[in-house]
């Protein structure tokens, strides 16, 4: 074969690999409102930066006549490229080849880039769209999944791992995304469940549609499995790019810094009016968040799940932070099972990846009730306490209004390692609210006027930040208009913080 023929042969093989399962199946994929694996990678990465690995790998199975059917690449496209100029590894399951199912060779390709991503210290992004285990390969497929799970676990806290679900993801296949840091879903076209509607009908006699069982709405509002939801694939992949811009490439790096023209000493007079004088009146904590951060740019995580706590990424003076904030506009900002677990996992992500925590507190306590107690609020609330206490990143806390009871301790208080703890003059820091306290302390008073006076007396004595400040539990009481500047000062002051916990194999977070 001469050189020209060799090159022509190479071109032909490349074309075959790039055609995936063929034009007909590509059209079927498009008709279902989905893009192909390669189109998705193009969309996700900076233009022209993708380098493919293992393009010519094929499966090695022989059962059920599958050896007569081979596609170069074998149902997954893997490689590396850039997002905002920074290296990432990516795999995209190709639904046009055997339904994107997991074969031994296909798993080996994913394992290879997982290992490269760990070695090079870069994020790994998985684009999932698969019929699950390739039935013709039996236990080899299960072994492949397990190898991926194993690497997911070993990578956890070392490199950021991001999963997007862009089609079916069922059975044990859900556990790789579940082990990663963030799950993105697309409205209508992505589904995740351990057992599908048919099995559920047989076992529990429940009738449920695929969408109701495991669609994006379900997982972003009911189960809390998904962290972000896009209306379509393009929007979802843009959101992945946005997330990557906030986080470092690995646990040894600082998050990337972005230049901003938002003045660090910007005074925000409007903030003086945000927290109502009446402690029972709700307000939207996001009004504070958006006003204090750089350029009003907030990437909220799980906005539709456990809305009584807000979590997300923002920047102060160009530097990334993780924000955790009670939301008085939803269930009065109370801590319950879902909000505790939601925030705890976020705090642990930020701590693992050197992202400082800014905590905004307005919390009346833990939610009372048998549902919460039987559901284990004791252990779930403990998760948040544990996560804040073990976090060694800079921890800046601001109490805007209520900080009552155990919830005061939990919300990144001074006592569990808060580096700088601020309070507004409107803060109320005590064991409980005035009415509750007087009901216990003056239980025998029946006269309503007398009771009201006692409540007022308690309010004056305890429902303020001055007791805590006199004990050094609050470092500074600040005017709301100075919030941005004060937080930036605290972040600058803590930038070189050195703190590590005692060496141990690992802690035992209450799961
Ligand atoms: C081999 C599979 C396959 C599978 C789909 N295909 N699932 N091949 N093993 N598990 C093939 C189909 O034969 C078809 O091939 C192509 O993929 C596209 O499938 P369609 O059915 O035509 O597509 P669609 O109508 O969109 O339906 C997609 C689907 C459905 C919902 C995913 O195919 C399906 O229900 N598949 C079975 C899913 C399943 O039960 N998987 C095992 C789950 S258990 P052609 O050649 O016609 O294009 C599991 C355990 C994991 O995964 C354990 C991990 C520890």
From the N-terminal CA to the C-terminal CA, the straight-line distance is 63 Å
Helical content class = 25-40%
Name the hetero compounds present: hexanoyl-coenzyme A
User: In CATH terms, what is the fold-level topology of the largest domain?
Assistant: 2-enoyl-CoA Hydratase, Chain A, domain 1
Q: With helices defined by DSSP (H or I, 4 residues minimum), what is the helix count? A: 19
Write down the CATH class of the largest domain: Alpha Beta
Classification by helices and strands = alpha/beta
Beta-strand portion reads 15-25%
**Radius of gyration from the CA trace?**
26 Å
Please count the beta strands (DSSP E, at least 2 residues each).
17
Mean pLDDT: 96
CATH architecture classification of the largest domain: Alpha-Beta Complex
State the major sheet. 8 strands, mixed
Uncertain parts: none
**Number of domains in the coordinates?**
3
Write out the CATH superfamily name of the largest domain: 2-enoyl-CoA Hydratase, Chain A, domain 1
Tertiary shape: elongated
Family: Belongs to the AccD/PCCB family.
GO molecular function: acetyl-CoA carboxylase activity; propionyl-CoA carboxylase activity
Organism: Sunxiuqinia elliptica
Pfam family, one: Carboxyl_trans
Topology:
Elements: H1 3-18, H2 23-31, H3 37-44, E1 51-53, E2 76-83, E3 86-93, H4 104-120, E4 124-128, H5 139-155, E5 161-165, E6 168-170, H6 175-179, E7 182-186, E8 191-193, H7 197-204, H8 210-214, H9 216-222, E9 228-230, H10 233-246, H11 285-292, E10 299-301, E11 309-316, E12 319-326, H12 337-352, E13 357-363, H13 370-375, H14 377-390, E14 395-404, H15 405-410, E15 420-423, E16 428-430, H16 434-441, H17 448-462, H18 466-470, E17 476-477, H19 483-493
Parallel strand pairs: 3-4, 4-5, 5-7, 6-8, 7-9, 12-13, 13-14, 14-15, 14-16, 15-17
Antiparallel strand pairs: 1-2, 2-3, 10-11, 11-12
This protein binds hexanoyl-coenzyme A.
The site of hexanoyl-coenzyme A (HXC) has 16 residues, from helix 5 and strand 6.
């Amino acid at each position: 074969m001469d050189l020209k023929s060799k090159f022509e042969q190479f071109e032909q093989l490349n074309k075959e690999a790039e055609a995936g399962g063929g034009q007909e199946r590509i059209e079927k994929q498009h008709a279902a409102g989905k893009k192909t694996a390669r189109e998705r990678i193009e969309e996700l990465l900076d233009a022209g930066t993708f380098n493919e690995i293992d393009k010519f790998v094929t499966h090695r199975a022989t059962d059920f006549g599958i050896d007569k059917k081979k596609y170069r690449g074998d149902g997954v496209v893997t490689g590396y490229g850039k997002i905002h100029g920074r290296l990432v590894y990516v795999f995209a399951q190709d639904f046009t080849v055997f339904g994107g199912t997991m074969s031994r060779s296909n798993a080996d390709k994913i394992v290879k880039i997982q290992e490269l991503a760990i070695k090079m210290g870069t994020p790994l992004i998985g684009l999932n769209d698969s019929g699950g285990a390739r039935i013709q390969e039996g236990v080899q497929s299960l072994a492949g999944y397990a190898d991926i799970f194993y690497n997911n676990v070993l990578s956890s806290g070392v490199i950021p791992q991001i999963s997007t679900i862009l089609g079916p993801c069922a059975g044990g296949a859900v556990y790789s995304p579940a082990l990663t840091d963030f799950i993105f879903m697309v409205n209508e076209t992505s589904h995740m469940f351990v057992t599908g509607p048919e099995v559920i009908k047989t076992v529990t006699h429940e009738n449920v549609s695929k969408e109701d069982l495991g669609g994006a709405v379900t997982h972003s509002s009911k189960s809390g499995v998904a962290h972000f939801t896009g209306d379509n694939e393009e929007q979802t992949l843009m959101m992945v790019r946005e997330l990557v811009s906030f986080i470092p490439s690995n646990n040894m790096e600082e998050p990337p810094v972005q230049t901003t023209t938002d003045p660090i000493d910007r005074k925000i007079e409007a903030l003086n009016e945000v927290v109502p004088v009446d402690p029972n009146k709700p307000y939207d904590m996001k009004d504070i968040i958006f006003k204090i951060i750089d350029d009003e740019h907030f990437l909220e995580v799980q906005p539709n799940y456990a809305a009584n706590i807000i979590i997300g990424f923002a920047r102060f003076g160009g530097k990334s932070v993780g924000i955790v904030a009670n939301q008085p506009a939803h269930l009065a900002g109370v801590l319950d099972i879902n909000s505790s677990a939601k925030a705890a996992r976020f705090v642990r992500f930020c701590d693992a990846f050197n992202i400082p925590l800014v905590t905004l507190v307005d919390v009346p306590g833990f939610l009372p009730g048998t549902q919460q107690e039987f559901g284990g609020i004791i252990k779930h609330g403990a998760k948040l306490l544990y996560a804040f206490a073990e976090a060694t990143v800079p921890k800046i806390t601001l109490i805007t209004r209520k900080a009552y009871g155990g919830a005061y301790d939990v919300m990144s208080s001074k006592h569990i390692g808060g580096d700088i703890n601020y309070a507004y003059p409107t803060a109320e820091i005590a064991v409980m609210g005035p009415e509750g306290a007087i009901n216990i302390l003056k239980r025998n008073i029946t006269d309503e006027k007398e009771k009201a006076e006692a409540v007022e007396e308690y309010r004056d004595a305890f429902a303020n930040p001055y007791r805590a400040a006199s004990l050094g539990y609050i470092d500074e009481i600040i005017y709301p208009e100075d919030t941005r500047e004060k937080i930036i000062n605290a972040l600058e002051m803590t930038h070189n913080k050195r703190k590590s916990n005692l060496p141990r194999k690992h802690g035992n977070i209450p799961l």
